[in-house]
Every structure is written in structure tokens, then in C-alpha cells.
Fold this protein.
Amino acid sequence: MNIIEWVKNNYKTELLTMVKYGLVGVANTAVFSLVTYLVSLTGVHYSIYTAIGYIVAILFSFYMNNRFTFKGTKGDVKVMLAKFLGVTLSLMLLVQVIQYVFIDVIGTMEIIGIIVGMLFYTGTGYLLNRNFVFKNKS
């Protein structure tokens, strides 16, 4: 099947999956914000409460993408989690590089560098999660 036939046959399903991925991203941001805020109330250093927020948010994101976005994925959960963590951490690092290049090297406004990084993270994250982490082998 060529790409045009695939798009004709699968665009609705793929579009729905993309919307679900976006919804999980929004929920993930809310989870991170809530956890970070609540832990900050304990008086610990910001590096601790943000780290806890990221850990909880990443685990939440994995769970929701596995159960909701890409549901029906078969495979070893430990292997998928390892792949997910590898993709997530790699993308976070690449976003830092993109932001550095756009903001510090090219000299664009900070918001532009941040938006470019966010777009890269979201688009690439979707493709890698869809085709690598949660790829259904059946």
C-alpha cells in the first residue's frame, strides 16, 4: 500500500490519536503544575519539587499514552517504559539545544526559541511514541 492509500484509509484514526496525544499533553501539564505546587508547599528547595513534578508527570504521561492514546499496544511494559524514558529525555535535551541555537546563536526572541522547541518536542514526540515506543506489533 502506498502512502496516499494509507492516508485515505487511516487519516480519521490517526487524527483522533493525535488529538488524544494532545489531550494527554494538556493533562500532563496540569499534573506537573499541581504536583509541583503541592510539593512546594512543604518548603523544600525548588529543584526537589520540580524534579518530583517531572517524575510524576512523565510516569502519568507514559500511563495515559499507553492506556488512552495508543491503547491496544501489546508488548512488555518495562521495555516500553525504557523506550519512553529514552525518547522523553532525548527530546528534552534536543529542545535545550534548539532553544540555545535559536535564542543565543541566531538571536531570535526567547518566545520564538521556546515555541520552536515546543513544536519540535510535540511533533517528534508523537512520531517516536507512535512508531517506536507504542508500536503495535500485531
About this structure: The mean pLDDT is 91.
